[in-house]
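Support request, please re-run this one:
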Amino acid sequence: MFTVRDFRQIAEILHADCGIALGENKANLVYSRLAKRLRALRFKAFREYCEFVISETGTEERKAMITAMTTNVTRFFREPHHFDHLRKAVLPRLAKAARSGRRIRIWSAGCSSGEEPFSIAMTVIAAIPDFANLDIKILATDLDQNMIAHGREASYDASVLGSIPKEYLKGCVARKETESESIIQMSDKVRSLVRFNELNLLHKWPMSGGFDVIFCRNVMIYFDEETQLKLCRRFTELLPPGGSLCIGHSEHIDEERVPVDLVGQTIYVKRGGSA
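Re-run finished. Output below.
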């Protein structure tokens, strides 16, 4: 049985834990996504399931519930204009700073299974041939530990090759054939740029330093307006003047409430510096 009370309790848990905002029109979605979890755990009613996930022993299941309610849709070089902007407008300036001894940090927040941070890494390699001699790193975070594990493996079905520009393939991607599948593996030099960590964006951020570029795309669509505003303000606190923030195609930032300027399609820079 799935009652209105069950739905509201689940919605409250999701909002409190990771900022996901669910209207009551999402009740059928919640039921279809979580009914599988009930069967797996052999619960007969959602009431029992709710009691379990808020208990001390239900911590891991609460993570599984969040995973079930989020959609990991991603691909290499998704929304390619962001990577074009990164290569042409941002990385030349950052390369000059790196060659002067400054650390360069890029954050892929909500990285899913790794396609986004590896796309950033390939862009860095193409734009900065001497990257290996410079202090350049990409942090990739996601709240789903399964996605983080996938990213660390850095292996993908070979069908994704079509989404990677041909100019980036040489030296960055290796193709492997097995008896059952055809896969690609990110090369060591691509993987060397990226560090994967599990992180809930609504919790405390352990990073001690700032970032020059932040990608947080198609993540805020799950949040209510207040949570989006708080998150964008936190992002800009970690950016220097002129630092870049890229968001998803259906997202936007209120420039009157967050100190950024729109410089391209869903590309913002923190006020006080050049793009």
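The two ends are 54 Å apart (CA to CA). The CA atoms of residues 18 and 119 lie 26 Å apart.
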